[in-house]
Write a structure and sequence with these properties.
Blueprint lengths: L1 E5 L1 H7 L11 E7 L2 E8 L11 E4 L2 E4 L4 H11 L7 E13 L9 E7 L6 E10 L2 E14 H5 L17 E2 L16 E7 L2 E7 L19 H15 L1 H4 L2 E11 L4 E13 L2 E12 L8 E11 L1
Length: 305
Amino acid sequence: MTITHFDRVGIEARIPHRHENMLLDHVECEKIDDTTVGRFSVQFGQQQPRDIFLETVDSQSALIPTLLVEILALASIVCTDYPDDSVIIFASISNFVIHRKPSVESPLFGTVTKLKDKGNFVRCRGVVESNAGIIADSELMAFIIPKIVLADEPGAPKLVELPECTTSIPVDKTRFNKVSDMVVCDEIVRPFGDTRLVGKYTYPPTHPLTKGHFPHTPIMMGVMQILGIEDTVTAGLGPILLNGHVTGDCQIIRSDGALIADIKEFVTEIIDGKGVFRGTKKVVFRESVRPGDTLLIALHNIQAS
């Protein structure tokens, strides 16, 4: 059995490219034979500025719930051995469930358990908790690739039919509970109808998270793509439904027809007109999003109640 402790300095040495979105303070990795278990913790309001990841709910600060899966992803990277000339890219998220609001009044902690690796693929299962109990759990799969491959021009993507866009309604980002940089919907281009709703978003080259994800080869964080679901729901359904539940599927499509991500069976709650992501059965990330790319967030099979 081997136990390795990582403080902030050690974590940054393991993930030197992600300081600006470092949602970890301490990780303890325990290796027993082929099994690795990581125990992590993170506290807000003290060491590192993390305001970009917070929202205000009922006059109190809370972590944007979707970011819980980012904590699990970062902890799993710390507990994975990989070459210095490589990076870890997350390919899918499965059975992601958010059980309660992640308050930042007390520390968040939890575990990630690495499942059996296969080739360059890494699989893990994780849980985020607080003193109030389990907050979220999920399974993740990633792959290790050389940095030089990440910088290369992407290969031929899977092309899909672009959704019909019938309007252009700008999104007022001041009505969201979070900073505008984390609102992943610029306009509604197809209002809700016939179980469909489409938002549009352009990833700006000046976005504050481009610096470290990744240096010299910026790509959009996968968790931001998921944020596009709740933000499109807020902009397109929030004024209509006010309070309720929205379920469905989603395709995130680049403006040239490239399928960026496939999301199955998402669940979003609407509270006072604002969408709150509660989970999804499966997210598959197919292509990277580069600064300047324009995305269509195409929700379909929507059931609203």
